[in-house]
Amino acid sequence: MSYGPDPWQQAHWDWRAAGNFIFGGAGAGLLVATPYAGAEGLAGTLLVLAGMTLIGLGLLCVWLEIGRPLRAMNVMRRPGSSWMSREAMVAPLAFGLGLAVAAGLRAWAPLLVLAALGFLYCQARIVQAAKGIPAWREPVIVPLLVATGLAEGAGLYWLGALALSVPMRAGAAGSMLVLLFALVVLLRWIAWRAWRSRIAASAAPRALAQIERAGGAMLWFGTILPIALALPAAAGIPGTAWLLAAAGVCAAAAGAFFKFTLITRAAFNQGFRLAHLPVRGVPR
Predict the structure, then answer these.
(1) What is the enclosing helix (H) or strand (E) of 243?
(2) What 3-state DSSP class applies to 257?
(3) How many C-beta atoms lie closer than 10 Å to residue 125's C-beta?
(4) CB-count burial class (<10 Å; 0-12, 13-18, 19+) for 131
């Protein structure tokens, strides 16, 4: 790494930091999608546990990244100091509510959804708080990352529903769930476009090149293809559960690729901005 006036790629957050956002965001999205879709019984319990496991994997990734893992609990001491502290405090709440819902206390499901949304929001604000990186500090990154987590979680729900043989709601209710999935995927793309246009003038050219690559996958593999695959199910055509599962895999994979790119490949800072470069022997 060479430091100078030109932007350089940060090296403090690597694949482990990206794993926190990938697994944690998808897990929180799954905890939102499962109660909303009305999955019950053993299948609903397993899906909730899967969402909690993904959040746990994300936190394990970030724990492996820190220089002194045994001091990890210090993050809980000052919740007002950073969004990472708030994320660490919301996670146990989501775990506790998730265990309650998994144990059959369905009345706690709305609180679980709120806790999962709070976890998603904290994750998005962690990224946006890094003011030195133009691609991260843009405020539109917050709704973009929240929408990405919701799209990933909804996609994983359809995959889990196929694997666990969860029956789809009949009639208009089932079609509405599919249309909501398509809407979240579309809103994610709209947020990506707004974010991309806002950072066009501030992000480094090498960062924009990586972002464009991820954007192509987001458009075709993460938006157009999932919506096309979900349309037969939205129309009420029977036997389309596997199409929904394929749509979910596409939506989740595109979101994971985008977040990995955002954290590890597009994270160029703004470099040094010096109004006047000092020259020996020349007065200011």
Answers:
(1) helix 241-264
(2) helix
(3) 19
(4) exposed
pTM metric for this prediction? 0.91
| Phi-psi region at 69: left, alpha or beta (left = phi > 0; alpha = psi -120 to 50) | alpha
pLDDT tens-digit profile of 42-59? 999 999 999 999 999 999
Q: What Å distances lie between residue 87 and 21, 35, 120, 164, 244, CA to CA?
A: 11, 21, 8, 30, 31
Q: Is 283 helix (H, G, I), strand (E, B) or coil?
A: coil
Q: What are 62-102's pLDDT values in tens digits?
A: 888 776 665 656 666 666 678 888 998 999 999 999 999 99
For the record, the structure tokens of 85 come out as 């502290």
Nearest to 250 by CA among 159, 178, 168, 166: 159
* Tokens found for residue 273: 């901005």
The token pair that represents 116 in the structure block: 């999962």
Do 78 and 99 touch, CB atoms closer than 8 A?
Answer: no
Between CA 101 and CA 34 the distance in angstroms is 11
CA distance 59 to 213: 27
Q: Which residues of 212-250 are buried (b: 16+ CB within 10 A; e: fewer)?
A: eebbebbeebbbebbbebbbbbbeeeeebbebbbbbbbb
**What type of residue is 260?**
F
Q: Is 194 within 8 Å of 142 (Cβ atoms)?
A: no
